[in-house]
Every structure is written in structure tokens, then in C-alpha cells.
Design a protein that fits this description.
Elements: H1 3-7, H2 26-35, H3 48-56, E1 79-83, H4 91-100, E2 106-110, H5 111-116, E3 138-140, H6 147-162, E4 184-185, E5 189-190, H7 195-201, E6 206-210, H8 217-231, E7 236-239, H9 247-257, H10 278-281, E8 289-293, H11 295-305, E9 310-311, E10 314-322, H12 324-334, E11 344-349, H13 351-359, H14 362-368, E12 372-375, H15 380-385, E13 392-394, H16 397-401, E14 408-410, H17 413-422, E15 424-425
Parallel strand pairs: 1-2, 2-3, 6-7, 6-8, 10-11, 10-13, 11-12, 13-14
Antiparallel strand pairs: 4-5, 9-15
Helix pairs in contact: 2-6, 3-6, 8-9, 8-11, 12-14
The structure holds iron/sulfur cluster.
Length: 426
């Protein structure tokens, strides 16, 4: 039977039966029965869920639409109302629940968060719209939408259901309906439908043979700086490292490689978890470029960053933010010492690290020596702006690179402490 036939049965009702019998299309009766008994799943994600709950309460009488039976199981639901912010942690569960719902099933995105991320769109943990993963049938705008707005959205869904044709709906097709692959939450959210592309984008591009001897985190800052300069936007694969880098060494390497370059990721096969071998890092391909970094290159980098010596006005540490171990090292070096008159000494760190350092008495030691520990700020404000025109010393090539004037000295933490006490650097 073609669609026209299906929708126009062509039977006349004899006059004597007209008040007792109706003839309609299969589509209409099928859709009417479905639209009047949509069972939403009983779950909510954030503030919008409160409005959803309110809609289900007696005042708004969801029973008028045959929708009052909120089901606690996806197996018995045919409507998923996404009411609230969808986080990257939550989306794998949401997709799993959606897959567990039997056909026919619908999705309603309730509120700004579900529709596009809402006020949290830029959050590192937020999915900017559930439609990135699920096929949304109706969007209800608002933050939060009122119960009336949700009801309006449900009426729109009913209208949509009314327009479906039994001949076209996906659940009566011969081909099996594909499940939506569950996104995988790792360091970020991976959409398994795009896994080939993701893998491709994570392929190493440059082989960096490290022949330099790396003693400490300062050497790793120089290495990061040199590598960033060599690879630019590439993905470096570093070989020749003799031991597992410490957390601080890795932090410094990551921060510095993004100063002269834009290194989105890197491999240290055997030490970082992503690839256990060089071949795996390059996914069997050949590197596009090969470089060697020697002690000489690090010395050269070090020289490039030094623009002066002699009297200093301030010392700036903690770019990137100091870890507790680094604050502890600084406090150990400053114990019993006093800053030179006219030298300001700053350490930038996070609020949590400062709290732990305070509890351990480290902040007290630093302050007693005349230093300051500041939290949750960029080095730029307290340092390069306030001391504009002065001579600064830092253990961070990144900090020195972004200075707004010529004079900066870069050296290890112990040298910075020594210079702060002496008031000058040799
Ligand atoms: S849209 Fe507004 S009310 Fe709804 S979950 Fe997001 S922030 Fe909360």
C-alpha cells in the first residue's frame, strides 16, 4: 500500500452508523495512541530538573497529556527529558540510558544547558549541547524554562509525533538501528564515532633525540623551550631520556614548550602512558622531522633568555604555579635569610597549595625572609606590570619571555634566592 492509500482509506460510513463508527488512517490512530501516552524517564541533571519535577506535580497536571507516569527505568520510558547541565562525566551514562530505551523514543532538551551548554558552555567539564551525542526532537529554551514552557515543549513533541508515518519511522525499517557508541571519558571526552580522526590527530610528527643531560626541572624548562621552538605546532616524540621525569619536570616541560611553540601534546615513550614505544607514538608511520637536542642547545637557550646581570629589583617564581614541593624547596633555601632591601620576592601558586604550605609553616618562613606567596593569579599582573622598568629575575623562561621590557634574568631557584638576598646577580 502506498502512502496515499494508507492515509486515505476511502471507505464511506453508512449514514445509520455515522454516530457509532469512525474511520481513520492507521497513522492517525497509531500516532494518537503514542502521543497520548508518552512516558518520560524519571531523572534530572541540575536546576532545570526542579522545574521538571514541578511540572509533574499536581498544579500543572501532566496527566492531561498521558505523561504523568514518570518511569524509573529506561526500559519503560519513551521520552528522555534532559533537564540540566550535561557534564562530560555524565554523558556516557546518559547515552547508555538512551540506548537502553526501546523504540519509539524521543529526546527533549530542556533549558539552555541541555540545548547548548548554557552559562557553563565554556566550562572544561561541560558538554556544549546534548545534541552532540543524542538526536534531540524538541528544544525548550530558558534558564530555567518554566513548567508552562516545558508543557509547551511537550505539546510540540506531540505535534511532531502526530506527523510521523508508520511507513517511514526508523523502528520499522529492515535495517537494524545502530546504538550510539558510549563516549569515553579520559583526559577529555572522546566521541567514539570520531575515534579515527582523534587517533589521527594524536599521531607524533617529530622525533626529538635528547642528547642533553637533564639534571633537574630547570633543565626541563630549557628543554621545553628548545622543543617548542623546533616543532611549532607539531607533536614531538622524545627519546633518549634516562629516567622518569618528576611531576615538576613534566609541568615545566609542558608550560615551556608552549611558549615559543604550540605543543598540544607530546610523547615520552616508556615514561608517559599514551604510547609505550616510538612506533606506537608514530602509529607505524615515519616522523616528518627529526631533531637532536644537546647540552649546547640548552646552553644556547639559556643565553638567549638572559638579557642582563647586576642589580635586581624583584624575583618572580611560580610560572607555572609552584607545587607544594617547590614551595618547600624555596622555604628551605630562605630559612634564616633576609631579602636585600629594595628587592621584592614573589611566589605564585594555587590557593590549595598555599593553604597546605601555610599548615606546614612554609609560608611563614618565606614571609619572615621578606617574601610573598600569592595565589591564583598570573605572574604578569603582580610582576611585570607593577615593576615595569625594573630588572626581574625568575626561574621560568616563560615568565622571562612574556616580560614587557628588556631586562630579565633567568636562573635556577637557588640562584634566584641568592640574588634576592644579595640584591644583585653576578
Ligand atoms: S539552563 Fe539554567 S536553570 Fe537549567 S540547568 Fe542550566 S543553569 Fe540551571
Amino acid at each position: 500500500m502506498n502512502e496515499n492509500e494508507l492515509n486515505s482509506p476511502g471507505y464511506e460510513i453508512p449514514p445509520e452508523m455515522q454516530s457509532a463508527v469512525s474511520i481513520t488512517t492507521l497513522d492517525r490512530i497509531y500516532n494518537w495512541s503514542r502521543r497520548a501516552s508518552v512516558w518520560p524517564m524519571m531523572f534530572g541533571l541540575a536546576c532545570c530538573a526542579i522545574e521538571f519535577i514541578c511540572t509533574a506535580a499536581s498544579r500543572y497536571d501532566l496527566a492531561r497529556f498521558g505523561m504523568e507516569v514518570l518511569r524509573p527505568s529506561p526500559r519503560q520510558s519513551d521520552l528522555m527529558i534532559i533537564s540540566g547541565t550535561v557534564t562530560k562525566k555524565m554523558i556516557p551514562t546518559i547515552v547508555r540510558l538512551y540506548n537502553q530505551m526501546p523504540e519509539p523514543k524521543y529526546v527533549l532538551a530542556m533549558g539552555a544547558c541541555a540545548a547548548g551548554g548554557g552559562p557553563f558552555k565554556d566550562g572544561y567539564n561541560v558538554v556544549s549541547g546534548v545534541d552532540k551525542f543524542l538526536p534531540v526532537d524538541v528544544y525548550v529554551p530558558g534558564c530555567p524554562p518554566t513548567p508552562q514552557a516545558l508543557l509547551y515543549g511537550l505539546i510540540k513533541l506531540q505535534e511532531k509525533i502526530s506527523q510521523q508515518s508508520i511507513k517511514k519511522v526508523r523502528w520499522y525499517r529492515k535495517e537494524p538501528i545502530q546504538e550510539i557508541p558510549i563516549p569515553v571519558l579520559g583526559p577529555d571526552l572522546n566521541d567514539m564515532r570520531k575515534i579515527k580522526l582523534i587517533k589521527e590527530n594524536r599521531k607524533g610528527t617529530c622525533l626529538i633525540d635528547v642528547k642533553a643531560s637533564l639534571k633537574d626541572e630547570f633543565d626541563y624548562t630549557l628543554l621545553g623551550y628548545a622543543v617548542g621552538k623546533l616543532v611549532g605546532y607539531g607533536i614531538p616524540v622524545l627519546t633518549g631520556l634516562s629516567r622518569q621525569p618528576t611531576t615538576e619536570e613534566l609541568i615545566n616541560f609542558c608550560a615551556m614548550s608552549n611558549v615559543p611553540g604550540a605543543v598540544s601534546m607530546f610523547y615520552m615513550p616508556g615514561f608517559t602512558v599514551e604510547a609505550s614505544s616510538v612506533e606506537e607514538a608514530f602509529q607505524g608511520d615515519k616522523p616528518k622531522d627529526k631533531f637532536t637536542v644537546t647540552d649546547n642547545d640548552l646552553k644556547q637557550t639559556y643565553k638567549e633568555l638572559q638579557t642582563t646581570s647586576g642589580k635586581i629589583d624583584f624575583v618572580m617564581l611560580g610560572c607555572p604555579h609552584y607545587t607544594l614541593k617547590q614551595v618547600e624547596e624555596a622555604a628551605g633555601l630562605l630559612k634564616g635569610k633576609k631579602m636585600h632591601k629594595g628587592v621584592s620576592f614573589w611566589i605564585c601558586t594555587s590557593a590549595t597549595t598555599k593553604l597546605l604550605a601555610e599548615r606546614a609553616g612554609l609560608v611563614g618562613t618565606i614571609e619572615k625572609a621578606g617574601g610573598n606567596v600569592v595565589v591564583d593569579t598570573c605572574i604578569d599582573e603582580p610582576c611585570w606590570v607593577t615593576y615595569y622598568g625594573g630588572v626581574g629575575m625568575t626561574d621560568s623562561p616563560k615568565c622571562a619571555y612574556y616580560r614587557r621590557f628588556k631586562e630579565a634574568i633567568v636562573s635556577r631557584l637557588e640562584d634566584c634566592v641568592e640574588a634576592a638576598v644579595e640584591g644583585r646577580w653576578k
